[in-house]
Amino acid sequence: MNSVEVMVMEHDYILRMLNVVRKACFKVMKGEDINYDDFSKMIEFVRKYADAHHHGKEEKFLFKEMQTNLGKLGENLITHGMLVEHDYGRLYMSDLEDALQRVKKGDEESKLDVISNAVGYTNLLKRHIAKENDAVYKFGETKLPKEIIEQINFRTEEFEKEAEKQGTQKYFIGILENLEKKYL
Fold first, then answer.
1. Calpha distance 156→135 (Å, rounded)
2. 82 vs 33, 85, 100, 165, 175, CA distance in Å?
3. C-alpha pair distances (Å), 49 with each of 17, 71, 163, 175
4. Does the pTM of the predicted model rise above 0.90?
C-alpha cells in the first residue's frame, strides 16, 4: 500500500469512530447518563490514532512536501486549510474534555457543551476527510515529483512498521470495534 492508500484506509476507521461519537451524543441528548469511560476511549482514539498517528504522518510527510514543493498553492492549501482544520479538531477535543469534567462535577448545563463539541468535531472531520480523499491527496500525488512520492511512501511504511511493533493499529481498531458493538 502506498502512503495515500494507508491514509484513506485510516480515514475509514476515523469515520467509523465519528459515527460512534454521534450515537453517544444522541444518548446524552435523550437524557441517558454519560458513560465517561467510553467518552475517554473516544477522545483517546481521536488524539492518539486520528491525530498523533494519522495526522502525524500527513503533517510530517505528505503535507510537509506539498508545502515545500508545490509553491504558493501547496503552501496555502496545507497551511491555511488542512493544518487549520487539524488545529480546530484539537480544540474541539480539548473543549469536549473540559465539558465532560464540568458535567462530572455536577454542571448539568455543560452536557450541551459535550454534545456541541463532539458533534462539531464529527462534522469538521467528515468534511475534512472528504476534502483530503477527493482533492488534497490527489493534488499531492499528481503534482509532487515521483522521487518525493517514493520517499513519502518509504517514510510512511517505516512509520507504520514501527507503530505495528508497538501495537498501535491493533489497539485502536480494537477500541473502535468494541465501541461500535455498544453504540451502533
1. 20
2. 35, 5, 27, 29, 26
3. 11, 30, 10, 11
4. yes
Element (H, E) at 80: none
Cα separation, 181 vs 41, in Å, equals 14
Residue matched to cell numbers 459535550: 114
Q: In the structure grid, which three cell numbers stand for residue 98, read together?
A: 473540559
Burial 156-168 (b: 16+ CB within 10 A, else e): beebbeebeeeeb
Q: How far apart are CA 161 and CA 60, in angstroms?
A: 16
Residues in the chain, overall count: 184
The enclosing H or E element of 2 equals none
Q: What digits encode the pLDDT tens for the residues 109-154?
A: 999 999 999 999 999 999 999 999 999 999 999 999 999 999 999 9
Alpha carbons 26 and 118: distance in angstroms, whole number = 11
